[in-house]
Amino acid sequence: MDRAVACPVHMCTFDGTIRDVANHIQEHSDESHRWEALRWDDRDEFCRTTHFEEGQRFEQLGQDAWDHGDYEGAIENLEDGTSHFQRAQEFADDPSTLTERCQDIRDRIADIEVAEQIRGCHRKRHTRRRRMLELCLRAPASCKRRLLSTSSSM
Length: 154
Known about the structure:
With 154 residues, the chain is mainly alpha-helical. It contains 6 helices and 2 strands; from the N terminus they run E-E-H-H-H-H-H-H.
């Protein structure tokens, strides 16, 4: 999940996790490694922005995977996106918008799980279960998990 990110300083070859890069910048005293010379005000803004951008990247990868019928890849990428948005929250002044975004992604994951189960239902053999799952897609997010567990016992 944590892919290496490059140090944003031109010609610097350091890369690592977001935290490693932030520490690297913080520990260097040369002019090019100062926050004022970079596009961020400080370490927290770098971490928040970079985690947010990684969250967006994984969210898009998840959507693309879902669009291509790769349910497992979609869920994995969306979960990674949620993780980055949660990390961005740690550095945010107002984390409420990130909290809402994480919830939206969790709802989307529930939709993917339902769609995957619908795809697995054969038309004649599982019509009752399929109808239940199709109703589940239209249900409020709070009901989806309960409906999913009910439908799997059918």
